[in-house]
Amino acid sequence: MPIKIPAELPAFKVLRDDNIFVINSERADTQDIRVLKIAIINLMPKKIVTENQLLRYLSNTPLQVEIKLIQTKSYVSHTTLLDHLEKFYNYFDEIKNEKFDGLIITGAPVEKMKFEDVTYWKELTEIMEWSKTNVFSTLHICWGAQAGLYYHHNVPKYDLKEKMFGIFLHRVNDEKADITRGLSDIFNAPHSRYTEVKGEDIEKVNYLEILSESEEAGIFIVATQDRRKIYITGHLEYDRNTLNDEYIRDKEKGEKIDIPKNYFKNNDPNEIPIHSWRGSANIVFSNWLNYCVYQNTPYDIETLH
């Protein structure tokens, strides 16, 4: 089944050129099928890039998915054209009376700050509180995962001595868990962050499960037992060149930054990065949409509570 997005959204052409089945809203409206409504709170600075990344994986299932992009009112992006935001994004106030099968809260480059010092923290907490009754399953990514663990479960984050930056090996703790089903025992995933959460804090919350972790990168996938909240501390959605772009950006800023680990062939930034996590990303996003959302969300989404 296709993903339903406006034909004018840049991701439409990107996905179509990648031979991914997309249809515009007009055609989708003529199909007699229950679509999954997924909202995306996009907190990343390069919003169009993040849209393309997420929509690529959300489209890789037999399910028809309708996307609604959300931006914060308390902070306006300076790195995405205002015309794009006005045309394709909604504010929370505009959608807060709707029900959604799924919600994605992206990462954000604010992990060095205290949660309460982030400009849009109050607005984000309102969204996370709203998600308890208006969303069936929420997927939190990187800083979004740390924010969700802190807000919903009082799990703190800790500063790292240096940036966790690169591709790291992870193990599956429960191969029968729905979100990790089908993953190899050991798989790769990207990380790009200055802070971490610790297993000892998560284990104090008896309804949270650590489903995947890494000896080097730490906690990776955490979920509530009912799978209404999923937390992923890395960036499975990243494209082949995303870490390279971040590496160049940080170097140009004059920041002290090491080459992303286990990323370039022969550890040489002049080589093409090795995209070693694409299969794992497809599995995790498909599992979330199928097992955590589609198989359990009410057919009449308006009955969700």
UniProtKB/TrEMBL annotation:
It is found in: Cytoplasm. It comes from the Bacteria. Substrate binds at K163, S192, R249. It is an enzyme of class 2 (transferase). The active site is at C142 (acyl-thioester intermediate), H235 (proton acceptor), E237. Pathway: Amino-acid biosynthesis; L-methionine biosynthesis via de novo pathway; O-acetyl-L-homoserine from L-homoserine: step 1/1. The record marks E111 as: Important for acyl-CoA specificity. It catalyses: L-homoserine + acetyl-CoA = O-acetyl-L-homoserine + CoA. SUPFAM superfamilies: Class I glutamine amidotransferase-like. NCBIfam families: metA. This is Homoserine O-acetyltransferase. It comes from Clostridium chromiireducens.
